[in-house]
């Protein structure tokens, strides 16, 4: 009987996995199709970006043909999918390199920025949310709710500009635009593409501290939005748990308030928080566009904006595909964490 039960569970798991992978494939295909159609109807001409506005008609027609824009739209889409199946995202008009190579070059800078931002958002947002829930209706709760509302609703580019004015131009506490001082540019060999790690591995501590000075302000400002979101969700989850009967029972048994909050209530919301943090991290990787523009950060967001302005749809579609893969992967990871930490979902 146990053998049949085990085989039945394995079959259900394989079916569930196949179902999820099918949904992932359909989602990414739909995202690609929508992006491709939007790119073809946008009022931007990639040919003019290459040849310039003063080029003659014959030059324009030649480049128009080389890009395959004279083919029917469904044929262009078919060829794009065919190349994509072979790992070819096309060539970027901006650099002349393959889109995959360009993304591999700029994406580590965004990962570095977003990772520090999510660490800041989580380390600050979770304690604030717990504090607000345990002081419900009091002044501490009101302060946390106002902070969360401001962090969630005020545009991040406004925070970025105010941060530059106050902490860079006025107080001189933070670094300016870019990832590092110009005096240290090119001193560290790029191994991972993440300047903090590369400078530490090379033992170039002057470069390391310069990179820390430059990344702290944009990372904290980028993390404000996720901090506000995480704090609000933590407060909501904790309030739901603190009203449960097992919390009353724990207090009646004489457990300290610290044990009741952190060992009982908080552990029961941990799985939900993991999902929130994972999705917030994906949002930071996508939403770093404005912060990278304000701080002249040479990352994924800046590359996407430049490609959009140029009408380089190969680069735009490659970026959109990567964003879709990130969100889908983070959702799958969150589901897996649910099954690991919550036995009820197995």
Automatic annotation (TrEMBL):
**Which residues span the membrane?**
21-39, 113-134, 146-171, 211-231, 265-295, 315-338
Pfam families from the xrefs?
A: BPD_transp_1, BPD_transp_1_N
Kindly list the places in or outside the cell where this protein is found, as annotated in its UniProt entry: Cell membrane
All copies of the ABC transmembrane type-1 domain together span 107-338
Question: Which SUPFAM superfamilies does this chain map to?
Answer: MetI-like
Q: Which domain of life is it from?
A: Bacteria
GO molecular function terms listed in the Swiss-Prot or TrEMBL record:
dipeptide transmembrane transporter activity
Family stated for the protein in its record: Belongs to the binding-protein-dependent transport system permease family.
PANTHER family assigned to the protein according to its UniProt record, in alphabetical order = D,D-DIPEPTIDE TRANSPORT SYSTEM PERMEASE PROTEIN DDPB-RELATED (PTHR43163:SF8), DIPEPTIDE TRANSPORT SYSTEM PERMEASE PROTEIN DPPB-RELATED (PTHR43163)
- Protein name, per record: ABC transporter permease
């Amino acid at each position: 009987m146990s053998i049949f039960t085990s085989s039945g569970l394995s079959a259900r798991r394989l079916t569930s996995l196949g179902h999820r992978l099918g949904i992932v494939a359909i989602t990414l295909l739909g995202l690609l199709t929508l992006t491709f159609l939007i790119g073809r109807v946008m009022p931007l001409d990639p040919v003019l970006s290459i040849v310039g506005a003063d080029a003659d008609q014959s030059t324009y027609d030649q480049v128009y043909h080389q890009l395959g824009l004279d083919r029917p739209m469904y044929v262009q889409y078919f060829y794009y999918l065919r190349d994509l199946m072979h790992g070819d995202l096309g060539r970027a008009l901006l650099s002349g390199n393959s889109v995959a190579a360009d993304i591999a070059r700029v994406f580590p800078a965004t990962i570095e920025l977003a990772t520090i931002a999510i660490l800041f958002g989580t380390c600050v947002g979770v304690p604030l949310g717990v504090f607000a829930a345990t002081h419900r209706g009091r002044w501490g709760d009101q302060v946390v709710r106002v902070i969360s509302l401001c962090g969630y609703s005020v545009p991040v580019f406004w925070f970025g500009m105010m941060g530059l004015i106050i902490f860079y131009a006025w107080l001189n506490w933070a670094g300016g635009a870019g990832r590092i001082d110009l005096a240290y540019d090119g001193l560290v060999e790029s191994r991972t593409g993440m300047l903090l790690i590369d400078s530490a591995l090379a033992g170039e501590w002057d470069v390391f501290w310069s990179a820390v000075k430059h990344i702290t302000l944009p990372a904290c400002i980028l993390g404000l939005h996720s901090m506000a979101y995480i704090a609000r969700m933590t407060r909501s989850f904790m309030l739901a748990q603190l009203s449960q009967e097992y919390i009353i029972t724990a207090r009646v048994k004489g457990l300290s308030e610290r044990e009741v909050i952190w060992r009982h209530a908080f552990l029961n919301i941990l799985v939900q928080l993991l999902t929130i943090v994972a999705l917030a991290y994906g949002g930071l990787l996508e939403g770093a566009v404005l912060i990278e523009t304000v701080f002249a950060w040479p990352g994924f967001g800046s590359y996407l904006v430049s490609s959009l302005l140029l009408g380089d749809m190969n680069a735009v579609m490659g970026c959109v595909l990567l964003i879709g893969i990130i969100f889908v992967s983070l959702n799958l990871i969150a589901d897996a964490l649910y099954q690991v930490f919550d036995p009820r979902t197995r």
